[in-house]
Amino acid sequence: MTSPARYRKKPxxxxxxxxxxxxxxxxxxxxxxxxxxxxxxxxxxxxxxxxETDGDTPHSIAIQTLEGTMRADLNDWIIKGVQGEFxxxxxxxxxxxYDPSFAEKYSPNPVALHVVTVVAEGQEIxxxxxxxxxxxxxxxxxxxxxxxxxxxxTVETRMHEGQLIGQGLIGFQEYYLDGDGHKExxxxxxxxxxxxxxxxxxxxxxxxxxxxxxxxxxxxxx
Length: 222
Known about the structure:
Layout: E1 15-18, H1 23-34, E2 40-44, E3 59-65, E4 68-72, E5 77-80, E6 86-89, H2 91-97, H3 102-106, E7 112-119, H4 127-139, E8 153-160, E9 163-175, E10 194-200, H5 209-221
Antiparallel strand pairs: 1-5, 2-3, 3-4, 5-6, 7-8, 8-9, 9-10
């Protein structure tokens, strides 16, 4: 009878993001899963405590995994496995199992984040610009009426060696709506509640025609 042989587990590289417990962080993670045809939902049982990020928080992310629905809580990691599957992992188990990949730590040409501000926070825009913005948002599956007019609205894209990688993410503040479709108001400030949302950009926003015309005039003067 032979003795059992020893084996070493093959190194596996995964993608992962840790949830900070906020609605904004949940939106970013869910958008990531949806972009890979996965399913997840964010639940907060107490709207007055949805911004809490410590203690016994009332919110969670439900992720459809190969083994059924699994719950991710504050500080849990959401992992995309080698077969494209998604599942949550407790932070202590993650720390004991995974290290940052060699490429992330030692790549001489790291991936950089390229951010374009479409509308700055508090920026005033004219009606023509507002109409172009609404058309662009709708083309990307975003309801302009639910986007805060106070901004900011940005597009984030990753770059490697000066080249854009993949599609950008449109970031904006979206209004919370009640069951009747009305904006939820902060009773103290009487301002609408908003949360940060990210949507993958399908249709890019072209240059402002007024800016193009001004540049053309400058060129003719030169």
